[in-house]
Amino acid sequence: MSTPSAAARPVKDLEPRRYRHGDAVLTTYRGWCKGCDLCIRSCPSGILALADDDRIEVTDISRCIFCGICVVRCPDFVFELDRN
Ligand code: SF4
Ligand code: SF4
């Protein structure tokens, strides 16, 4: 049985955007972002921006240090970070 908060959350994006650099991949999920700017202001590399389609965009993945700050700061679970 799902909890009320889980039921209210949008279904997982079927077309996540994946940004790869070396052995690391940063994934963003469309439709979960509410534009709070927390990740944009927290990213030490300054590479996050809100795109025209209202989804968060990684503007230059080559400058990402894969610190995971965006993952932990986003209140809406937009980001996933994986190392292969
Ligand atoms: S992992 Fe770190 S450097 Fe990369 S986008 Fe997120 S906050 Fe910025
Ligand atoms: S922290 Fe999350 S909800 Fe806020 S702007 Fe960034 S991606 Fe969107």
What does this structure look like?
The protein has about 80 residues and is an alpha+beta fold. It has helices at about 5-10, 40, 70-75, and strands spanning about 15-20, 25-30, 50, 55-60, 80-84. It has a single domain (about 5-84), classed as Alpha-Beta Plaits. The chain is about 20% helix and about 25% strand. The protein has a three-stranded antiparallel sheet, with no helix packed on it. A two-stranded antiparallel ribbon has the order 3-4. The chain binds iron/sulfur cluster (2 copies).
Q: What is the global morphology?
A: globular
At the third CATH level, what is the topology name? Alpha-Beta Plaits
Secondary structure tally, helices: 3
Number of E strands = 5
Strand content bin: 25-35%
Structural class: alpha+beta
Give helix and strand order, one letter per element, not per position: HEEHEEHE
Radius of gyration: 13 Å
Strand order of the largest sheet: 1-2-5
Mean pLDDT: 86
List the ligand species: iron/sulfur cluster
- Largest β-sheet summary: 3 strands, antiparallel
* Total tally of structural domains: 1
* CATH architectural category: 2-Layer Sandwich
Helix content: 10-25%
